[in-house]
Amino acid sequence: MRSNNITTLTDFILEKGNNHAEATGDFSRILNDIALAGKIIHREINSAGLGELLGASGVTNVQEEEQQKLDDYADIQFINALKMGGKVAAIASEEQDDILCFEGKEDAKYIVAFDPLDGSSNIDVNIPVGTIFSIFKRERKGKVTQDEFLRKGKDQAAAGYIIYGSSTMLVYTTGNGVNGFTLDSTIGVFCLSHPNIKIPVEGGIYSINEGNTELYEEGIQRYIAYCKETTNGKRTHTGRFIGSLVADFHRNMLKGGIFIYPGTTDKPEGKLRLLYECNPMAMIAEQAYGSSSDGKISILEIQPEAIHQRVPFLVGSKNKVEKALSIIQ
Ligand code: AHM
Ligand code: MG
Fold this sequence. Notes:
The protein has helices at 9-18, 26-46, 69-85, 218-227, 245-255, 274-287, 318-328; strands at 56-60, 66-68, 88-93, 100-101, 110-118, 129-137, 158-164, 168-173, 178-184, 189-194, 205-207, 230-231, 234-235, 238-239, 257-261, 291-293, 313-316. The chain is of the alpha+beta class.
């Protein structure tokens, strides 16, 4: 703790590391590398209208989605930061077809999956976007194979996101609560601003793309109808859907509510990816006393079968998720 009462992310990470006798500093280094890449992306995003990084790159990624120039830029920043840091053996990214193994780092202890810039179609219209990451401690040494990434979310060593919004924030958990750090861009430092975040058990916000309503299964349609019910002439819920998972999740985490991206008739598995979107958000939610599900089981219990696998996703306040499941099932 500094005399002016600011706890920086670096102080915080060091302090946590010091509390673990077995800590080698590798893990702290990875978090610092992620924070560094986040600061570089923050800088680009904040001048995106002025530079040449707005708009589509002309490339379609492995998800058959149009890649934005900033998607690619963010991907490179994260890969470089983690490669230079030297504590990661391999990464999986939304923007890369296959995992990427770092040469000479076959014996590094960690692997990281990330979505470098989620919600990037929102960049051109000045709406918040985010980076999402998931860290696993390896169970073996040697060149990483794809199956090392196919572990249940409950085995994650850490998970987090960076939201590039009205301010830039890094939120993460190592399985011991959730803490949020706001970037003071004048000094380029993430400072602890939201210690020990807890999702309200109840909440009045529901976040779902209602443009898809007719494509959802009946249970989801019933839940939407439930959210629209009124009592004594007053609404029971308010609808909020930005179309940027990180921003929708972050708001619901602080205010209480539920986010749902269900399967649709044309895409039964939904849109969001298990490894680097749903798993990290689910870990954060559960560490903040919230809950997550794919409609049947906890997200953290799903056995992944592919690195870019999609799953239906419900996440948020504990009672909201429970109620939604009781209506849907
Ligand atoms: P992306 O990874 O290609 O940016 O897509 C994920 C985003 C999420 O942030 C958001 O929740 C969702 O797509 C919105 O999708 P839709 O436009 O179908 O509602
Ligand atoms: Mg994404």
